[in-house]
Amino acid sequence: MRVTSALREEDRRMARRAIVWGPPWLRRVGPVLDEAAEHTKLWWAAAGTMAAVGNRRGRSAAAAGVAAMTVAELLSNRVAKQLYERRRPPREWVPQEELRDCPDSSSFPSGHTAAAVAFSGAVAPAWPAAGAACGTAAMLVAAQRLHSGAHYPSDVAAGGAIGLAGAGLVRAGWSRWGA
């Protein structure tokens, strides 16, 4: 019990720090990035671009990314969020000028991070350059979820783990079925 309490308190302390931390460019880019990642628009746009310009490799990478993203969203939003109800960080931690609408769903895990990591992780083996670009965007999405006060660090870490699991499941299936 004591360890759990200490971990919870450290998570809260790190969240308060992450909300106020950040270079000025992150504060400017954050809302745009948040909007792009909402409802996985960013990843659908990336998949469409890869499929359009990448020939067979691009279509395979896009299909793997979308499949992994779907698996991760199901695991994070339809399973984990239903099993563990967690309040989001208090709105008073977020500077007034940066306060935006916050979802009503459970804070744990970060579905945005799960989708971003899954997409990037599944794209990378098929098309490493596209995977690196998507991975950079995924890291920015995860940082923005912390910085905006939408999630605690453990929410983002769990979302990342779910994303990696989703990418791994899809890549394993791809290998098994020869895609």
From TrEMBL:
<keyword id="KW-0812">Transmembrane</keyword>
<dbReference type="Pfam" id="PF01569">
    <property type="entry name" value="PAP2"/>
</dbReference>
<feature type="domain" description="Phosphatidic acid phosphatase type 2/haloperoxidase">
    <location>
        <begin position="64"/>
        <end position="171"/>
    </location>
</feature>
<dbReference type="InterPro" id="IPR036938">
    <property type="entry name" value="PAP2/HPO_sf"/>
</dbReference>
<protein>
    <submittedName>
        <fullName>Phosphatase PAP2 family protein</fullName>
    </submittedName>
</protein>
<keyword id="KW-1133">Transmembrane helix</keyword>
<keyword id="KW-0378">Hydrolase</keyword>
<keyword id="KW-1003">Cell membrane</keyword>
<keyword id="KW-0472">Membrane</keyword>
<dbReference type="InterPro" id="IPR000326">
    <property type="entry name" value="PAP2/HPO"/>
</dbReference>
